[in-house]
Write a structure and sequence with these properties.
Layout: H1 2-15, H2 21-39, H3 43-46, H4 73-92, H5 96-113, H6 120-136, H7 156-187, H8 191-194, H9 198-203, H10 212-222, H11 226-243, H12 252-270, H13 273-287, H14 295-319, H15 322-328
């Protein structure tokens, strides 16, 4: 029995490649989301006194990168820009086995030390932690590259690496499903979600609600019985997305389209851009099979390579054309 299980695990490992541009694209989205958050906000926004915590940044019992400098805004802004540069390097896809832990450290530091409200940083901190086993076993120079097929990939060492990485991807899928499950169940304990009016109050919240332009557009709906459909529909949609964990792989793309429409609508109407980008990265890990690589990435790479080679070729011909000097004369 154990031999059969071992053989099935082995076959699963050698037939599934975890190190593709699918997880690479998701990593880049997570890094870009945090980079956007940092570049458009000063340190004073993230590190300030809040109710119950007069000392900032929060450095109690943690290893935050923001706690490595004095807690004055010059130092914190300096670290912020260092972190921003590191996030750009991470988003570029360079050396995932080096930048994977750095990515988690940055996301963790934002979660434990900064004052944030949209939840994206918490999701990013968990996902980057779960991505570490995949990044540490990914020996590509860039996470956009195709993994080279050579004899060593079928050695015991690489089979173990694959099993570790694939198990991490399963853990990520479970974690993302739990996010939607927890969100839907938690809402059921709120009276406004049960009576169908939660969306009315949420969209008019002065901090997280819609801006005046969009609010005027949807106000007739919010003040009508249709608001119940929006409220309960949100609950059903989140339960539906949790159910994707148990769905056949051939249906994942439909779940992915629905989920992306939900989060991009939130991004546009509520302005939660970085949160939406983080959740897009999470959904790619959740609902896009890791072997189903994004072909558009290779097309972009091919285009830039062809443009670059054309320029080099043109420059070489120009510099080595013996008739050029004659024509100039």
């Amino acid at each position: 029995m154990f031999e059969k299980i071992g053989q099935k695990v082995y076959n699963w490992a050698i037939s599934s490649n975890p190190w593709t541009n699918v997880y690479g694209f998701a990593r880049s989205l997570l890094a870009i989301a945090m980079a956007i958050t940092l570049v458009f906000n000063e340190a004073q926004i993230f590190f300030r006194p809040v109710a119950g915590a007069d000392v900032y940044p929060n450095c109690s019992g943690n290893i935050s990168i923001f706690c490595m400098v004095p807690n004055d805004y010059f130092s914190l802004n300096f670290v912020k820009w260092i972190v921003f540069i590191l996030l750009l390097v991470i988003a570029s896809g360079w050396r995932p086995n080096v930048t994977g832990i750095i990515h988690w450290w940055i996301a963790y530091s934002m979660q434990v030390s900064a004052v944030t409200i949209d939840g994206g940083e918490q999701v990013a901190a968990v996902l980057t932690l779960l991505l570490i086993p995949i990044t540490l076993t990914d020996h590509r120079t860039w996470h956009w590259q195709k993994a080279k097929d050579h004899a060593d990939l079928y050695s015991n060492k690489f089979v173990y690496f694959r099993i570790i990485a694939l198990c991490s991807l399963i853990a990520i899928r479970v974690q993302v499903a739990i996010i939607y499950f927890h969100s839907s169940i938690a809402k059921m304990y709120e009276p406004t979600w049960i009576d169908g009016t939660a969306v009315y109050y949420f969209l008019q919240d002065p901090m997280l609600g819609m801006n005046s332009f969009f609010l005027q557009l949807v106000k007739p709906i919010l003040t009508s019985p249709a608001v119940v459909i929006l409220t309960w529909g949100t609950l059903l949609l989140q339960i539906f997305l949790f159910g994707a964990l148990f769905a056949s792989r051939k249906y994942w793309k439909y779940y992915l389209v629905v989920a992306l429409l939900l989060h991009e609508t939130i991004a546009i109407m509520l302005g939660l851009i970085s949160f939406s980008i983080v959740m897009t990265g999470a959904l790619i890990l959740y609902l896009n099979p890791v072997n189903n690589e994004f072909k558009f990435i290779y097309k972009i790479k091919k285009y830039f390579n062809s443009v670059g080679l054309s320029r080099i070729r043109k420059k070489f011909i120009t510099e080595n054309d013996p008739m050029l000097d004659i024509r100039k004369r």
